[in-house]
Amino acid sequence: MPPEIGSRPPRSAVGEVTGGELFWTNHREWLQGLGYLLRPRYQEGWTPPWTRVFDAIDQETYQTYGHSGIMDATVIADGSFVTMKRIQSPSQELDIAVWFSNEPQRSDPANYCVPILQVLTDPKEEGWAIIVMPLLRAYDKPRFDTIGEAVAFFKQIFEGVQFMHRNNVAHRDCTSTNIMMDGASLYRVPFHPISQDRKRDFSGSVRPYRTRTEHPVKYYLIDFGLSRRYKPEERPPLEPTIRGGDRSAPEIDACEACDPFPTDVYYLGNLIRRDFIEGWDITSQKFGFEFMQPLVTDMVQTDPSQRPDMDEVVRRFNEIVRGLSSWKLRTRVVKRADIPMLGFYYSIPHWLRRIKLIIRRVPPIPVPSR
């Protein structure tokens, strides 16, 4: 909460640059020399812009990452935006992230691992590095407009995890927080890296001006901090169970060590079950995804050995998609919360878009360019 009107908070108040943020202020000149400019909050001499009356623009004061090892920056050369992550070096996380970003893996059309644009060696602290990645958005914001857009999402994440498994890498935390979207092209103005429904300068809100169907997006698997890469002869591995973003997998509490590959399958199935079929609550339940239910049911089976592997998941999914009509794929994604008051209101622009896209012969399942 902002300070009371007429008061000035102490230097230790919320809004000051403290804790893990100091790492970034201490490295700002070095990063700028390499071509990366941090937000004003992390520049020399910055102080919280308190005023007698709290102004909405001052909310930038509070925009910090929950993980102090994460930061955003502007590329000075072209004005683009990136995300930075501070990780140990050497480490398996760094090795896996860089390996997927190198050729020939980088050019593989099934590779949906977040690309590493650059690795910076920390000059001040030995044993640490900073990886530079594109600035991404939450995968489901903005909301999906059509069933076909959601099908494109399923296809990409299935193929992405299949690609990892074929290369003997288990993600071990492929949950909703670790799947993101390169969605900048859906917006006319840059969005704030943390409060992504606001403009970058916090002067107002941002709204997408086109849908994923009109401009296909690419989804990425991120955060390989819990991931493991194995030799082919080491599979199936037995690893101590871990607790990542999704702790509902039955094997987490049932055994001390398990094969992490079937657990990845569970995480993806549970994501679709919670975010698309059942919803987190009754208002977030979405309609129209019953065609995914049989596959998802198998993916979240209690016995990991009974779950399909990712090759089987992709094969069955492709069969399902072949059975969906263009009419079904162009159907609007409706949440229970949309009914009944706003359903008709939201349907009008959807039908107008739908007619235009059919006339233009735009595919109902968007395919991003490489």
UniProtKB/TrEMBL annotation:
The signal sequence is none
Q: Which GO terms describe its cellular component?
A: cytoplasm
Name of the protein in question: Kinase-like domain-containing protein
**UniProt cross-references to SUPFAM superfamilies, sorted A to Z:** Protein kinase-like (PK-like)
GO biological processes: intracellular signal transduction
- Annotated ranges, domain Protein kinase: 8-321
| Keywords carried by this UniProt record | ATP-binding, Kinase, Nucleotide-binding, Transferase
Gene Ontology MF terms: ATP binding; protein serine/threonine kinase activity
